[in-house]
Amino acid sequence: MTQTYRIAVLPGDGIGPEVTAEALKVLRAVGERHGLSFEVREGLVGGAAYDATGDPLPPETLELARWADAILFGAVGGDKWDHLPLEKRPERGILGLRKELDLFANLRPVVTWEPLLHTSPLRPEILEGGVDILIVRELTGGLYFGQPKGRDGDRTIDTCVYTDAEIRRVLHVALQAARRRRGRVVSVDKANVMATSRRWRELAEEVAREYPDVQLSHMYVDNCAMQLIRNPRQFDVIVTENTFGDILTDEASTLAGSIGLLPSASLGSGRAGLYEPIHGTAPDIAGKGVANPLAAILCVEMLLRYSLDQPGAADAVQAAVAAALRDGYRTPDIREEGTRLVSTAEMGDAVVARLDS
Amino acid sequence: MTQTYRIAVLPGDGIGPEVTAEALKVLRAVGERHGLSFEVREGLVGGAAYDATGDPLPPETLELARWADAILFGAVGGDKWDHLPLEKRPERGILGLRKELDLFANLRPVVTWEPLLHTSPLRPEILEGGVDILIVRELTGGLYFGQPKGRDGDRTIDTCVYTDAEIRRVLHVALQAARRRRGRVVSVDKANVMATSRRWRELAEEVAREYPDVQLSHMYVDNCAMQLIRNPRQFDVIVTENTFGDILTDEASTLAGSIGLLPSASLGSGRAGLYEPIHGTAPDIAGKGVANPLAAILCVEMLLRYSLDQPGAADAVQAAVAAALRDGYRTPDIREEGTRLVSTAEMGDAVVARLDS
Ligand SMILES: CC(C)[C@H](C(=O)O)[C@@H](O)C(=O)O
Ligand SMILES: CC(C)[C@H](C(=O)O)[C@@H](O)C(=O)O
């Protein structure tokens, strides 16, 4: 007897559809091998949804998302829609999903893959021994959603707002994750300037008292942006607010070698979650079959682990990705001499072929 | 007949006093050689001022700053004062000066020094040919000063606010600087999420029309944080708002090899300016005579260039720093095998000794 998991697939724009197709291919393949069955439904989101319906997050898509045990999300956005007001832009698709489903904790693991150490712009000495950081980004608060927001005559305003409860719950996620890792959390803020940061720091101290086995420290965001490059191996778990997390995770992707390698899980208080690569739509390479699908495929790993509670299947995906890299398969973003250049679909196939090993 | 320039020296906290002393040493030495005379007055700021007067920016200091043609600033802050409310913290000293003197444009050059290419955490290939970026950070708006700011029950708020005039004037500074450089400006924002960014982007397009010889492009801040590490040589001038500029400049310091090498100039509408290293107070090494004074010394270069209009003297400082590095003088932050480890004061002396060559 197998359980049927409900999977919503929202490919979005640009390279979203092509990388999501590979992720789905891997999900189906690992499901067969681990006796998992899926009901998969696809929906429109972002620019694609706007073009079809005039709404970047149509009601049917939101319904589909609520129905699902897990959402495989591609990417949204593109120059084509830049002229639209903020509430019609493709980005509203992902922002709306995060907010409506209350997916407040965005887990963004940053790990180096041994065979790719030489594709990072950082010196090998800096990465030696490997980097393994989990960045926990708050995802439904801060500057992204605070009101008032907008233009009033010659003044324009964004509001960064956090309630104590919003800060506390994401700190718990980070502190709990640290327990299952190396036991250290760096909380990143700008407490010397921002009131929300100051409150964040106070609450971090308070919440951490419930985790005497975890070591908490604080770092200013400007310093963290420097430390991530100078000495990334000092970090275990980083927890930070929405905007800082957005910036620091893109920066940290350089450690792994390519932003095409970084998945993320957006979780709320239940098991359901949304899984999206941290890369964008990369319009310049969209439709050419050259995008790296590994970030999307690693989303499947996170999906299996966090939403479906299938650690065995998750480990299998992780191992298959490692094997494909070890065997020299490379999309253009991580190409090196002496490796085998493959297309998006060939990389997906290479991972599937290694699920049994 | 020599003109007498009025210089205010505000050493502040931590390593501020020791690096500022070397900067002053170089300023006096270059002044003698170039027939410049100075009236130098020192003032209290930051934690030092708070301890002495209960105010991180005492009225006498503000008066001194207004009197000066140029201000040599050290650094402010430290754990010791972290418990104080935001308006009493050492940082209020520098933030207050920026705001009161309306120093809205913060120029932060990021350059690689040939003899230090190997001290950067980045691979030599990435830096090959040298990096020469000017980051223009807006300094008196955004999240730093916007009201309302503070806690109200269980909600805490910061406000990011910009008037059109504030955005326009800093864009002009960047576009003018690009004219004297390689003619390219990247305006960095988060226009897919923030209303202030969206307005920033519109005004950048508008203002750039007055500079048909300058090429303007836009980049999201998350992407910029990645591009600075992946391909820093693509940038000429970067212009961005206050908080993004804070984060990106600290990150970019890794290109130069050490944050101890980065000066900055904070300018308003007149010639008067404030010059401060972008590094902080580094409490862990304060008072030990090991801090790198080159950022502070390079502030003297900027001061001569921008506030005193003495390009010859500025060039002499620049050349003397390059010569000291070429001759192998190194503070611990940039030490390499085969170089000569020196103290803060010895580095200052090494630069002075090379002013005549
Ligand atoms: C597309 C955009 C709204 C989004 C964000 O800023 O959160 C993206 O950059 C990300 O990091 O997921
Ligand atoms: C000390 C602090 C207030 C300051 C800032 O954030 O502007 C510093 O980080 C800087 O970059 O000059």
Describe this structure in words.
The structure is a homodimer of 357-residue chains. Chain A has 357 residues and is of the alpha/beta class. Chain A folds into 2 domains: 1-107 and 260-357, 3-Layer(aba) Sandwich (Isopropylmalate Dehydrogenase); 121-256, Isopropylmalate Dehydrogenase, CATH 3.40.718. Chain A has helices spanning 16-34, 46-53, 59-67, 91-100, 124-127, 164-179, 195-208, 221-230, 242-256, 294-306, 311-326, 344-353, and strands at residues 4-12, 37-42, 70-75, 105-111, 132-138, 142-152, 155-163, 184-189, 215-220, 237-240, 265-267, 273-275, 329-330, 340-341. In chain A, the strands form 3 sheets. Chain A has a 10-stranded mixed sheet, with helices on both faces. Chain A has a two-stranded antiparallel ribbon with strand order 6-7. Chain A has a two-stranded parallel ribbon with strand order 13-14. In chain A, strand 1 (4-12), helix 1 (16-34) and strand 2 (37-42) form a beta-alpha-beta unit. The two termini of chain A are 25 Å apart. In chain A, 59% of the residues are buried. The mean pLDDT of chain A is 97. Strand 7 of chain A pairs antiparallel with strand 7 of chain B. Bound molecules: 3-isopropylmalic acid (IPM) (2 copies). One 3-isopropylmalic acid sits between chains B (77, 91, 94-95, 246, 278) and A (192-193, 222). One 3-isopropylmalic acid sits between chains A (77, 91, 94-95, 246, 278) and B (192-193, 222).
